[in-house]
TrEMBL record:
This is Isocitrate dehydrogenase kinase/phosphatase. It is found in: Cytoplasm. ATP binds at A341, P342, G343, T344, P345, G346, M347, K362. Pfam families: AceK_kinase, AceK_regulatory. Belongs to the AceK family.
């Protein structure tokens, strides 16, 4: 007897039911992966205070590197599960659209809905890779995907000033629970209340006038912010009329015990603490988006993506950055076009920006200019090395994007010609969009070689001193910049020198620092050929002087402060300290702000 075929309507209904089952399983798998990722991220973060109290500084750096791997590892795990679940329907757009709808309902009331959305986007991107990705399958631009600020009252505590400002400051510190005792808490509290009072007098007169009237209150975040060898107590002094002065108190754990080291006051000083050249904070919270809402109140000029990035949610920061990029493009004048970034053109990267933007876009060239010989994969590995490193305030953080779309009409003819010549393999043009297959986004700065041209003697001396200090800070963090030409360093709005060219960067301990051998034959030293054997990792510090050959005035200032950089002994001593397990002291605030 022949097998009966179901009616077409029944067949379609069965097919739809099957797709619903698969889409539901897919959504559940992504959600389970998100929850696992968040739990693992939080578990590593929860150990921050214990590592601080035990002075496990190597452990602090290891934990930071480990936490950076959590997200990608879970995306990979979920992607493998989804491949099995979806099977032959894996690349069916309709299935993913249905899964997105189901997943959206699953996380609709979730505390961390914004980050959960980003995790779905990451999984989708990992599966589809270089196939055409449509935003209809992603939680990105629509208004309903953009989290609105929420109350953060449960994240903060308040101390009334009714019993006096000094008493309130005492309570602020007494409420912080540590296993380690303070060395001289009375002295620390006295320093803190006097400095806060002086800061309020200068920065927020309304707050200052209410301190002596015992009016208003001190508010502080319930979770401490841990980074490197310090932790930070974040809060603000608030007047009854709402005027407020944000602050961050730096707490160090020395061999003798705890001490309050400094206090930063006002949005600008806090901005320096949350700067783009710093590594990420560890903050004990399962409500990171609400903490970003709170930090946005303290630093209203900071973008949300900067704050998500600062507390370690770097993937969601990319989602927030993309929204920021789209919004600012829409709101900028039509003639604000992308152009080649100011400064000396790179041998490895094509760099572009807009005059009104705070960011630059860097794309690896198809072919490097001589004498660069590295491969594209090697350059990408260098950028990944920087992402994992302790940037000690001297390396610009980067956001790495794949398939980042731009409005084609915003590109100048000159830039488009350069792109077709230098990065043709990395661009795709369709209709009104230009898509970069791989690009790094960095904060825009003034290149140091351009900055010095507008300096008087006082500014030049100061910036050259910081240039040398930047190199020393990197050395202390086991980082050798490689190419230390001034064009590879930038100057921030704070006048701080930061390195941003990573194609020759490497761990300092991999280098072999040598004295340049002398020759009995003077003609040897004039020859283009080396008159002695040179290994791949050999470095001759005496040759660093060539970096200053274009500006003798700058060179003379540099030598006054940092002549030791031209000797192998300085670098060898740094290597010895690193090999002995020493972790370099980094202060993300000015020395003049310290209490000692």
């Amino acid at each position: 007897m022949p097998e009966l075929e179901p009616p077409q309507s029944v067949s379609v209904e069965l097919e739809n039911a099957l797709q619903q089952v698969i889409a539901t399983k897919l959504a559940r798998a992504v959600f389970a992966g998100f929850e696992a990722m968040f739990a693992e991220f939080l578990n590593i973060t929860l150990g921050a205070q214990s590592r601080f109290e035990q002075q496990q500084w190597q452990g602090v750096q290891s934990a930071m590197r480990e936490r950076l791997q959590v997200y990608e590892r879970q995306v990979k795990n979920v992607s493998e599960a989804v491949r099995i679940i979806a099977f032959q329907e894996l690349h069916e757009p309709q299935l993913w659209q249905q899964a997105k709808h189901i997943y959206g309902k699953m996380v609709a009331e979730h505390e961390n809905q914004p980050i959960a959305h980003t995790f779905f986007n990451s999984t989708f991107g990992a599966i589809w890779d270089d196939k055409k990705i449509r935003t209809v399958h992603l939680f990105v631009l629509k208004a309903k995907y953009r989290a609105k600020p929420r109350p953060f009252d449960n994240l903060v505590s308040r101390i009334s000033l009714q019993n006096g400002f000094t008493n309130a400051v005492q309570q602020l510190i007494y409420r912080q629970a540590f296993r380690v005792q303070f060395i001289d808490l009375g002295k620390d509290i006295d320093n803190l209340q006097r400095t806060l009072r002086a800061g309020a007098k200068l920065q927020c007169r309304q707050v200052y006038e209410l301190l002596d009237l015992n009016d208003g209150y001190i508010e502080y975040a319930n979770s401490l912010f841990f980074r490197n060898k310090a932790c930070y107590l974040i809060g603000r002094c608030i007047a009854k009329n709402g005027d407020n002065m944000p602050f961050a108190v730096a707490i160090l754990n020395t061999d003798s015990g705890l001490t309050l080291d400094a206090v930063m006051m006002g949005a600008d000083q806090l901005s320096l603490l949350f700067g783009f050249a710093r590594t990420y904070f560890m903050v004990d919270t399962d409500q990171p988006a609400r903490y970003v809402d709170y930090l946005s109140v303290l630093m209203p000029h900071k973008q949300r993506f900067e704050l998500f990035n600062a507390i370690g949610f770097i993937k969601h920061a990319k989602t927030e950055f993309y929204r920021y990029k789209v919004d600012t493009t829409k709101n900028s004048p039509i003639d604000d076009k992308y152009i080649i970034a100011p400064g000396t053109p790179g041998m490895v990267m094509l760099v572009f920006t807009t005059p009104g933007s705070d960011y630059v876009y860097k794309v690896i060239k198809d072919k490097f200019n001589a004498p660069k010989t590295a491969s594209k994969a090697q350059v990408m590995a260098k950028y990944d090395f920087v992402k994992q490193a302790d940037r000690v305030g001297r390396l610009v953080d980067t956001h790495e994007f794949r398939y980042l779309a731009f409005d084609l009409s915003r590109f100048s003819d000159e830039l488009l010609a350069q792109m077709q010549t230098n990065i043709a393999s990395s661009i795709s043009i369709a209709d009104k969009a230009l898509v970069l297959k791989h690009v790094y986004v960095e904060r825009k700065m003034t290149p140091l070689n351009l900055y010095i041209n507008q300096c008087d003697d006082i500014k030049l001396n100061k910036v050259m001193d910081d240039y040398g200090q930047a190199i020393k800070d990197l050395a202390g963090a086991n980082i050798f910049p490689g190419d230390m030409l001034m064009k590879n360093f930038g100057v921030t709005r704070w006048g701080r020198v930061v390195f941003y060219d990573y194609d020759e960067i490497c761990p300092l301990t991999q280098c072999h620092f040598r004295q340049l051998p002398s020759s009995e034959n003077s003609f040897d030293e004039l020859s283009n050929e080396s008159y002695f054997d040179v290994d791949e990792n050999d470095v001759f510090p005496s040759q660093f002087k060539v970096f200053f050959s274009a500006d003798q005035r700058a060179f003379s200032y540099f030598c006054q402060q940092h002549n030791d950089l031209f000797s192998p002994e300085f670098w060898q001593q740094c290597q010895a300290q690193i090999n002995a397990g020493h972790v370099y002291d980094v202060y993300p605030y000015k020395q003049s702000w310290r209490f000692t």
